[in-house]
């Protein structure tokens, strides 16, 4: 069935129609039915039907998401419930926080916490080991657990209380947004269960008390870089299940296509960029693609973005889904828990995590 190309408000939505009778094994990631003109445009998917009372609308959206995950590992979503007022409030809060003196921000220094929460100064993170550390500063928060929670008392990794700056309204805003983004992520994952032909509650049961991360990022202008090689965020794949990204108007996000070329993923008003992370790629035996991407720091302006990394409960086993392997297509990856995988990737990315492991 041919692709349907729909023009909406000076942008192109690539709606890819295909049969629902497909399984993971033997799937060939072909692009032969996509017009060459649209090879380097990420799909835009309206997910509003997922919020309607008409359950029969879900398979159509699930098909579009499935195709985007297989072909790109990246797509835009519109029609979600996160409104412009919320985004405006978050941007204002982020700009206020990152404008604080360094000493104030370092009161919640991420390198001084065992559960990876708080402020990450510029060059704390190095996503591409072949490049200098990233030209960005960050704020990370997760699922809040009081100090008397059994998992915190047991010393489970990545469990603990959030560490918020002392700014009026900050904590309430961020905690509410975290909850709303987790709900949005699970709506998308629920749609994916249709395409993956697995139980509708598969992901919901594994995202109870998740280790998902909400991050605020400030990218200073490119002229502040320590060298010409320093990027806003070096080439990398995301570690978790799926990522939902808000990006401001500065641009700079680039995605590597199947030909190895870097293409721009420009901001689109009212949208989130969604991409597949390594955990979902492992779960699906690479049916869904965890695609390399990077951020090129903008010229002369600051860039702000807000990714939400959806990651399941730390004890969740990440192993090949039963219908994503067969005798001819065995599982590619060994089983690993969510926490084990994340901690191994953190050690690759953060010097302070490597030092902690060396001291252990």
Automatic annotation (TrEMBL):
Origin superkingdom: Bacteria
Pathway annotation from the record: Alkene biosynthesis; ethylene biosynthesis via 2-oxoglutarate
GO terms assigned for molecular function: 2-oxoglutarate oxygenase/decarboxylase (ethylene-forming) activity; metal ion binding
Keyword Cell membrane: no
Keywords assigned: Ethylene biosynthesis, Iron, Metal-binding, Oxidoreductase
Alphabetical GO biological process terms: ethylene biosynthetic process
Cofactor: Fe(2+)
Oligomeric form and interacting partners: Monomer.
Family: Belongs to the iron/ascorbate-dependent oxidoreductase family.
Protein name, entry field: 2-oxoglutarate-dependent ethylene/succinate-forming enzyme
């Amino acid at each position: 069935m041919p692709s349907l190309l729909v023009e909406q408000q000076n942008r192109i939505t690539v709606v890819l129609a295909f049969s629902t009778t497909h399984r993971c094994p033997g799937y060939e990631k072909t692009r032969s039915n996509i017009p060459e003109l649209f090879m380097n445009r990420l799909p835009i998917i309206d997910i509003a039907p997922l919020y309607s009372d008409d359950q029969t609308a879900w398979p159509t959206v699930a098909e579009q998401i499935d195709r985007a995950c297989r072909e790109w590992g990246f797509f835009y979503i519109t029609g979600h419930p996160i409104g412009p007022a919320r985004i405006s409030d978050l941007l204002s809060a982020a700009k206020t926080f990152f404008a604080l003196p360094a000493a104030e921000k370092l009161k919640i220094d991420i390198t001084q916490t065992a559960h990876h929460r708080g402020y990450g100064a510029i060059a704390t993170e190095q996503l591409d080991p072949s490049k200098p550390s990233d030209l960005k500063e960050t704020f990370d928060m997760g699922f809040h657990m009081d100090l008397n929670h059994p998992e915190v008392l047991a010393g489970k990794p990545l469990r603990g209380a959030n560490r918020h700056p002392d700014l009026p309204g900050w904590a309430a805003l961020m905690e509410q947004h975290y909850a709303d983004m987790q709900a949005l992520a699970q709506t998308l994952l629920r749609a994916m269960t249709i395409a993956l032909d697995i139980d509708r509650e598969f992901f919901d049961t594994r995202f109870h008390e998740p280790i998902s991360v909400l991050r605020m990022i400030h990218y200073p202008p490119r002229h502040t870089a320590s060298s010409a090689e320093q990027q806003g965020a070096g080439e990398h794949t995301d570690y978790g299940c799926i990522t939902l990204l808000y990006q401001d108007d500065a641009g700079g996000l680039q995605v590597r296509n199947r030909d190895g070329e870097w293409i721009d993923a420009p901001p689109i008003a009212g949208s989130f960029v969604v991409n597949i992370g390594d955990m979902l790629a492992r779960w699906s035996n690479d049916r869904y693609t965890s695609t390399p991407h990077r951020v090129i720091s903008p010229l002369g302006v600051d860039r702000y973005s807000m990714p939400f990394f959806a990651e399941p409960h730390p004890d969740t086993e990440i192993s090949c889904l039963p219908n994503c392997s067969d005798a001819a297509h065995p599982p590619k990856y060994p089983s690993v828990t969510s926490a084990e995988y994340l901690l191994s990737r953190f050690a690759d990315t953060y010097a302070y995590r490597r030092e902690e492991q060396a001291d252990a």
